[in-house]
């Protein structure tokens, strides 16, 4: 049976009514027959039936032992970082999500946790950066917004050898396209706000662990710190996962068509899409991902912010907004939006140039999207 179908089939039908959709248990507490005697639920921060179903689904979908749902991707990241102690070091991908960069460098630095950024597309760089204090390797693949791909299996082997945890933020691929735990990672994180939610209407984060013990530790942190996902938002994600496979496959098909079109435009300088043979990590992407995904980034030959701003304010179907992974196509200018909190020098060094544009290719018709890009590119030319 298809994997997603099998997982969805395993959800128990509501025993009270036979409702086909999972019920939303909008309750904070549960009646106890006598002190401590309950039906497995005593307080919603600790456990909620709707959230529990979502957590079980994501654990199975990522081939892990334990799933946990949080109020946002960053709350999920925060709970995983809390596995660390003062004095510990993290070795992380240099093209890290802006919010994770901010969390590590302006909040966790105050608690004595340090982070070293390396170009993880070369696994040897990761091994070189590991010291006696390193407790965690932090990967995103593909990265945001440069779509760099790291060899998860090779880095997992380095992590095992050095007795370090490997954490993979799998937001850009989704569990449909990539399964980091199968490749040897210990923890997978999602901003479910993106592809898993898929409709730009919910903020959520998910964590899945490869083993039960690690899952139990993060569950303890989740209950102790309280960043849990609400019942209604848990229900929205369960509803969304039913269409995750067909959505992600269509996002990827549309993105490949658009990337091939962008390849023909002479005003475009660097075009980043792992599905193109010209992408430096194309081979490893093809090996570890089922499909290249729905995100594309590119910059203009003249590399001016003016060209980028002119483009992002001229598209119509591609709405100018932060975030990604929804049914509606979005366009963003990382330098002035998602990556604003990263100092310009650091940003330029990691390749996020002034004119870089990120497209989140939606589920509209690919030809309509190409026409929209075509008319916006024409406006950029006129402005010059
Ligand atoms: C958006 C995002 C996050 C943060 O998730 P929120 O749900 O916005 O808190 C983390 N990692 C990646 C790769 C993201 O794109």
Overall description:
- Strands 1-7-6-5-4-2-3 form a 7-stranded mixed beta sheet, with helices on both faces. Strands 8-9-12-11-10 form a 5-stranded mixed beta sheet.
- By secondary structure, it is α/β, with parallel strands linked by helices.
- It folds into 2 domains: 239 residues, Type I PLP-dependent aspartate aminotransferase-like (Major domain) (Aspartate Aminotransferase, domain 2), CATH 3.40.640.10; 138 residues, Aspartate Aminotransferase, domain 1, CATH 3.90.1150.
- Helix 2 packs parallel to helix 9.
- The model has no long low-confidence stretch (mean pLDDT 96).
- The protein is built from 14 helices and 12 strands.
- The radius of gyration is 21 Å and the shape is globular.
- The site of pyridoxal-5'-phosphate (PLP) has 15 residues, from helix 3.
Give the topology.
Blueprint: H1 3-9, H2 49-61, E1 66-70, H3 73-81, E2 89-93, H4 98-107, E3 114-118, H5 123-129, E4 134-140, H6 152-161, E5 165-169, H7 174-177, E6 187-191, E7 205-209, H8 212-225, H9 231-241, H10 244-262, E8 268-272, H11 282-288, E9 295-300, H12 305-312, E10 319-320, E11 330-332, H13 344-349, E12 357-360, H14 366-383
Parallel strand pairs: 2-3, 2-4, 4-5, 5-6, 10-11
Antiparallel strand pairs: 1-7, 6-7, 8-9, 9-12, 11-12
Helix pairs in contact: 2-9, 12-14
Q: What's this model, at a glance?
A:
The protein contains 14 helices and twelve strands. It is an alpha/beta fold and 384 residues long. α2 (49-61) runs parallel beside α9 (231-241) and α12 (305-312) packs across α14.
